[in-house]
Amino acid sequence: MRADAPIGVFDSGVGGLTVAREIMRQIPEERITYFGDTARVPYGSKSRETIVRYSRQIIRFLKTRGVKAIVVACNTASAFALEELRPEADIPIIGVVKPGARAAASATRNGRIGVIGTEGTIESGIYTQYLQRLCPDAQVVGKACPLFVSLVEEGWLKDEITTLVARRYLEELKKSDIDTLILGCTHYPLLRSTVAGIMGEGVTLVNPAYETAVSLRTLLRENNLANDGHHKNGENLYEFFVSDAAERFKRIAKSILPFDIMGIRQIQIEDY
After folding, report:
1. Domain boundaries, the chain
2. For 85-115, what is each residue's pLDDT tens digit?
3. pTM of the full predicted structure?
4. Does 145 participate in catalysis according to the annotation?
5. Which position among 73, 74, 85, 257 bears the catalytic label?
6. Of 39, 30, 42, whose CA–CA distance to 4 is shortest?
C-alpha cells in the first residue's frame, strides 16, 4: 500500500467530520476520503447485525477508493462492528472507542467517569469494558442521548431546544459525582459548549475525535504508511461521499470544517 494513498473515514452522517477535522489538524499531510451514511442515519437505535452489514458495505466502498487505512468515526459502529470486521480487512482499521477510553482513564481524579452516547453504544457497554481494564476500580455511568444526533443533523447546535434536551439528559449525570465525561458519539463534540455549560467546570470533557487522530498518526508510522507530505500542485486532498441528501450534508459541514466542501458525490451504498 502506498503511503500517499488516502485515509478512509466513515460515520452515519456528519458527526464523523469532527474526527476528519482532527485528522486534518493533527496530520495535515494526509489525504482523506470521507463517507457519511446519511440515508441510514442514525445508527444508534439499530441492531448489531444491521450495523455490521452497513459497516461492511462502507468498508468495501472505501477500499474501491484505494484507501490505506480506515477510521471508523462512529462510536456505535466501533462498538458493534470493528472487532468482527478487522480480521476481514487487509489494511489497518481504527475505531474511536479505545482512544477515548484511554484519555478518560488518564483524566479522571476520582475514578467516576460518565459516558454519553447513542442507545447502541451505551447498551453495548463497550466503554465500561475498556475503562475497567484500564482502571479496575473505575465507576462508569452511561447515559443514552439519542436526540443529540438528530439535533446536530438539523444544525440546531445553539438552539434553546437543544439546551433544554441536554439539561434533561444530563440531570442524572450531574448527580452522580463524575469528574470526567466522554462525548461518546462523534456528533456530540459539536454540542461541547452546551454540555460543558451544564456539567460545570469540575467535569473534564473527553473528545474521542482528537484522541483518535493522535492514535491514527501513531498507527500510520508503525505501519510505514505516513505520508511524506508531498502533493501535486492543485491536488484535492479531501473527497466526500454520502448515501443521500448531499446538499444538506454540505450545509452542516460548513459549521464543522474550516473550508467549504465544493464537491460531494452521492452513491448507492447498498450496491457494495
Report:
1. 7-95+210-271, 97-208
2. 999 889 999 999 999 999 999 999 999 999 9
3. 0.89
4. no
5. 74
6. 30
